[in-house]
From TrEMBL:
PANTHER family: PROTEASE M1 ZINC METALLOPROTEASE (PTHR11533), PUROMYCIN-SENSITIVE AMINOPEPTIDASE-RELATED (PTHR11533:SF174). This is Peptidase M1 membrane alanine aminopeptidase domain-containing protein. GO terms for cellular component: cytoplasm; extracellular space; membrane. GO terms for molecular function: metalloaminopeptidase activity; peptide binding; zinc ion binding. The keyword Signal applies. Residues 1-21 form the signal peptide. SUPFAM superfamilies: Metalloproteases ('zincins'), catalytic domain (SSF55486). Residues 386-551 form the Peptidase M1 membrane alanine aminopeptidase domain. One of its GO terms (biological process) is peptide catabolic process. Pfam families: Peptidase_M1 (PF01433). It comes from the Bacteria. Transmembrane segments: none annotated.
């Protein structure tokens, strides 16, 4: 066996000629001792939770079974009923008191959730208020004896102080609670009601008092419900009835037990056909909704449901529902039912007419890939809630269409695996359900209908947001993560971490085996983060403690760069030496694309362990000609905060080329300087997708100093993602439907950024242009880099194609700035060219916009910029 280490040492000892990165390298922050510390795991395994990541031989969890009976008053929008909870104490402890969750109390004006909502509001803030749960009676039934409970309500929690201790070893008692509450129109976007022309739609959740979890980690888990954090619940069986006006269709978690008592013969016949059909079958169509008579002619009906081995149940009701369904084919040969209910206005093949297709595909794909779906029915409800998951039923926005509807449906049903099957503590660790679910969503979307809605993530491009200055570590409770970062810390960053593990570190086969093993081990149980880490390590056969620590517990950044390209005796035929460096605190594997001048290219993969020796690594490459360039992470799959140093070219800029000649070539390429100066205004409209949601962007320019931008999500009531108006020295900005503060420095940068054809000014006094001496690399193309310093000191880097002259990319040279990439230049009226493809980063997400309309000299007035 050849000794490659010896060969490398010999090569290193030979004199070399080297191409080096031009800028002085920053001091590295990397410390291999912190990354690869052997002291990551805080505890050893025990009899309850094994060090191998499995439930221990004495693992236990308590149980809660529910019998619920309620009535819905559609005139008063009020729910009245009772719940009987049978609680089983399987713990090794005797219990003197019990804790329950009263989630409706968050909608009270005096709730802790309301007190901690920011002034600007937000998704989880209350719009209106109710009295929360109105408790009519609380009774403890212990050993057949019923007594009035001694209880205390504190915000969204209730403590019941027991007269007789609930003994260990499987002892049981019952709690009977009579209650009522008013159904809020907006309930922290998890429950609520929506008025339609055909009647109200009710999305009903958090609708009964629920047991808190008592476990071996914290005892009672009593963190209050404040909006951002979700739920931690015990498993059990549910038997529940809903009495409502007979004109309403009611759908709920689990199985409808009395269909013949609540459905018309026509609906029963159609439902039977749907259970045997892979194509969507209409159960109640729009004509029947409009006619308003397709129901049993009684004042009220009682719908009876049962859901087994579940942590929760939810339901929806409306006389406005169109209803369709189809068969689900599970990989074990069993069948289930996919169904959708939604208002007439949401129908159509571009919208909810495909919902049941999406439900069926989601369940079948997840079941075949990870773990079998465990409920008899999967129901998608089009209503007021933008996206929320419950066992066997999900609430999605009635306005969602196309890819947005697929994404929200696929995401919410993915939650039936996390946390419905794998019952983690959402209240503490949102990433264990949202992040894991977002990960399986990405895997699912890639294969659904041959990738109909799949777009490749630009992880590298999103690094500036992922590691922004206000970034919170993933391992935080949702309520302490900043509002504008929750989507990253709970969803995207953990999902990307799992994707990196799967595709860059372990490989699909090892990762998928370990991940499925974790799901199987902890199905219907309560894992902690450490259980997950241990389970993955053991099943994959890899000590991943270095990865778990840096990705989930820290806010470290990643910055890999190419430092130097050298040749022994300045002779490329003898091979080359490539030196790379790690400049930030995080370590990752390395993928290097090496392109030679003779056209040969190779991809080299190096494991993360190269960084165990320090922040610099040199490796030998068998080149046969000079290196044209080396690019690290050519596919952009790692969140590198400084991709500019990911490439190093061995080619100098052609002699005679200047910064001015590059800018002149660009101006000529897009229409000549004279034509550009004739443009008095420009309006551009584009469509794109932002974090799976369809968005529209409109931009207006008016010389000399006016700009308007509005990016909205039509399926979310035209929710404003970003808005911007520049009028001279005035700058107004919106982000996420709320006004955003703009500092003086940011204002200067924004004004400079949104000038119409800023290259026209570059010859004026006060501008400074610098051309990098070596060619740069942009998306696998060699490019000129021109750095522009404006009269007010703003530095902007811009890359231009040496062949076409077009601008390929720009970024403000400041910390946290995100790049914009341009492509597909097309001619519009007056003969100028603009990019019809533009990739930008907005609030942490990549959006690729395609222009749908562009007009020049439309006659915009000052009124358009107020």
């Amino acid at each position: 066996m050849r000794n490659y280490q010896k060969a490398l040492l010999l090569l290193l000892s030979v004199g070399t000629y080297a191409a080096k990165a031009q800028d002085a390298p920053p001091a590295s922050k990397y410390d291999q001792h912190k990354v690869f510390s052997p002291l990551f795991y805080p505890e050893k395994g025990n009899l309850f939770r094994s060090a191998s990541g499995t439930p221990g031989p004495r693992y236990w969890q308590n149980r809660a079974d529910y019998k619920i009976d309620v009535a819905l008053d559609t005139l008063k929008h009020r729910l009245t009923g009772s719940v009987t909870i049978t609680y089983t104490n399987n713990s090794p402890d005797n219990l003197d008191f019990l804790w329950l969750q009263l989630d409706q109390n968050i909608i009270r004006r005096d709730s802790r959730g309301q007190a901690t909502s920011v002034v600007e509001g937000g998704r989880f803030a209350n719009v209106g208020f109710t009295n929360g749960f109105e408790l009519k009676g609380v009774t403890v039934i212990n050993k057949g004896k019923a007594e009035k409970a001694n209880y205390l309500v504190n915000d969204t929690r209730m403590q019941i102080r027991l007269k007789d201790t609930l003994r260990t070893g499987g002892a049981k008692l019952q709690l009977k609670i009579d209650y009522a509450y008013d159904v809020a129109e907006y309930g922290t976007d998890r429950t609520g009601r929506l008025k339609t022309p055909q009647g109200w739609i009710y999305d009903i959740a958090q609708w009964y008092p629920r047991m808190e979890v008592y476990d071996d980690v914290s005892g009672w888990n009593t963190i209050p419900y404040m909006g951002a954090s979700e739920f931690y619940l015990e498993y059990g069986n549910f038997d529940y009835t809903i009495t409502a006006p007979a004109s309403l269709v009611v759908v709920g978690s689990g199985e409808l037990l009395n269909p013949t008592e609540v459905l018309t013969p026509t609906a029963l016949k159609r439902l039977a056909a749907a259970r045997a059909s892979d194509k969507t079958v209409m159960i109640k169509d729009s004509a029947e909704v409009l006619a308003g008579n397709a129901y049993l002619k009684k004042p009220t009906l009682t719908w009876h449901f049962a859901c087994k081995n579940s942590r929760d149940v939810a339901w929806a009701a409306s006389k406005a529902f169109v209803w369709d369904a189809a068969r689900i084919n599970l990989s074990n040969g069993k069948k289930a039912l996919a169904q959708s209910v939604y208002p007439i206005t949401s129908g159509g093949v571009r919208a909810w007419g495909r919902s049941t297709e999406y439900v069926k595909a989601s369940i079948e794909l997840y079941s075949g890939k990870w773990f079998e779906y465990t409920y008899p029915v999967a129901t998608n409800v089009g209503g007021p809630v933008s996206g929320m998951e419950y066992p066997g039923i999900v609430f999605c926005s009635h306005q969602s269409v196309g890819g947005d509807l697929w994404n929200v449906t696929n995401h919410e049903f993915g939650h039936n695996w996390f946390p419905m099957i794998v019952g983690s503590n959402e209240r503490k660790y949102a990433w264990m359900d949202e992040g894991f679910n977002t990960f399986i969503n990405k895997v699912d979307t890639k294969v659904f209908n041959k990738g109909e809605y799949y777009t490749k993530d630009d992880v590298q491009g999103g690094a500036a947001y992922m590691f922004s200055p206000n970034a919170d570590a993933i391992m935080n409770t949702p309520d302490v993560i900043q509002n504008d970062y929750l989507g990253n810390a709970a969803y995207e960053k953990p999902a990307q971490g799992l994707m990196i593990l799967r595709e860059q570190i372990l490989g699909e086969e090892r990762f998928d085996y370990a991940f499925k093993k974790y799901i199987k081990r902890w199905a219907f149980k309560h894992p902690t983060p450490w259980d997950f880490f241990h389970s993955m390590d053991n099943a994959a056969g890899e000590d991943l403690s270095w990865f778990w620590n840096q990705w989930f517990l820290q806010t470290w950044k990643l910055d890999q760069g190419v430092k130097e390209i050298g040749y022994p005796d300045n002779d490329p035929s003898k091979g080359s030496l490539i030196t790379i460096e790690n400049l930030e605190e995080m370590a990752m594997p390395v993928t290097a694309l090496i392109v030679e001048e003779n056209g040969k290219s190779s991809t080299i993969k190096l494991p993360a362990e190269i960084w165990q020796r320090g922040g610099t690594w040199t490796f030998a490459y068998k080149s046969t000609s000079r290196i044209s360039y080396v690019t690290l992470d050519p596919e952009g799959v790692l969140p590198d905060i400084n991709p500019d140093n990911n490439s190093l070219s061995g080619q100098p800029v052609q002699q005679g080329t200047t910064a001015k000649s590059v800018i002149d070539a660009y101006l000529n390429a897009v229409g000549t300087e004279a034509r550009l100066k004739d443009v008095s205004d420009l309006t551009v409209k584009s469509d794109g997708t932002f974090q799976g949601v369809g968005v529209k962007l409109e931009m207006k320019y008016k010389t000399p100093d006016k700009f308007y931008e509005n990016m909205i999500a039509p399926s979310y009531n035209n929710f404003v993602i970003t808005g911007l108006v520049i009028n001279g020295d005035s700058v107004r900005m919106k982000q996420y439907n709320a006004d955003a503060k703009v500092s003086a420095d940011t204002k200067k940068s924004i004004i400079n950024r949104y000038k119409l054809f800023p290259e026209l000014d570059y010859g004026k006094t006060g501008y400074k242009l610098e051309l990098a001496p070596d060619m740069q690399v942009v998306n696998g193309k060699l490019a000129y880099l021109v750095t522009v310093t404006t009269p007010n000191g703003i530095r902007v880097k811009q890359w231009y194609d040496p062949k076409t002259g077009y601008k390929l990319k720009r970024v403000t040279d400041s910390p946290g700035a995100t790049p914009t990439e341009y492509g597909d230049y097309q001619t519009i009226n007056t003969g100028i060219k603009i990019p019809y493809s533009e990739k930008i980063f907005v609030a942490g997400g990549l959006v690729e916009f395609k222009v749908t309309e562009a007009t020049v000299n439309k006659g915009l007035t000052n009124e358009d910029f107020k």
